[in-house]
């Protein structure tokens, strides 16, 4: 699946807006997508480092139009936690020399609110 097929739309609610300061972004995703696929899609589309992905299936509501009763479709929601302080990574090489690698990740998703 392509990343554009996995991430369908952002979910903008009062609760999701409060979680933006913590680095948690809420998306409507494909029902067949796994947590690993969602994390890779967000990293590729928005160039951020994903720390955690929580998913849930939202059940459809019963709707009524006149005499007829129907049901809206079920959908999947993902809450993605990103790294808000992406810093340099250090590791040791074979000779015991310390090497610093700077990753070029963003600390927020600007496109989330349509900016």
Spatial arrangement of strands, main beta sheet: 1-2-6-3
Number of helices: 3
Instruction: Name the structural class.
Output: alpha+beta
Order of helices and strands: HEHEHEEEEEE
| Overall body shape | elongated
Q: Please, what is the CATH homologous superfamily?
A: RRM (RNA recognition motif) domain
Q: β content, as a range?
A: 35-45%
CATH class: Alpha Beta
**How many structurally independent domains?**
1
Whole-number average pLDDT? 89
Describe the biggest sheet?
4 strands, antiparallel
Unreliable residue runs:
none
Helix content: 10-25%
**Any guess at the CATH architecture?**
2-Layer Sandwich
What would you report as the Rg, rounded to the nearest angstrom? Answer: 19 Å
CATH topology: Alpha-Beta Plaits
Question: Total strand count, please?
Answer: 8
State the end-to-end distance.
27 Å
Report on this model:
- With 115 residues, the chain is an alpha+beta fold.
- It has one domain: Alpha-Beta Plaits, CATH 3.30.70.
- A hairpin with a 5-residue loop joins β7 and β8.
- The longest helix is centred in the middle third of the chain and has 12 residues.
- It is elongated, with a radius of gyration of 19 Å.
- The chain starts with a helix and ends in a 14-residue tail after the last strand.
- The model has no long low-confidence stretch (mean pLDDT 89).
């Amino acid at each position: 699946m392509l990343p554009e097929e996995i991430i369908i739309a952002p979910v903008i609610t009062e609760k999701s807006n409060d979680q933006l300061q913590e680095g948690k972004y809420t998306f409507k995703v494909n029902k067949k997508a796994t947590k690993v696929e969602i994390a890779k899609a967000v990293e590729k589309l928005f160039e951020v480092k994903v720390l955690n992905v929580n998913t849930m299936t939202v059940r459809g509501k019963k709707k009524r139009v006149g005499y007829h009763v129907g049901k809206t479709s079920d959908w999947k929601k993902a809450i993605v936690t990103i790294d808000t302080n992406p810093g340099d990574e250090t590791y040791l090489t074979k000779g015991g020399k310390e090497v610093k690698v700077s990753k070029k990740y963003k600390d927020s998703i600007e496109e989330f609110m349509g900016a």
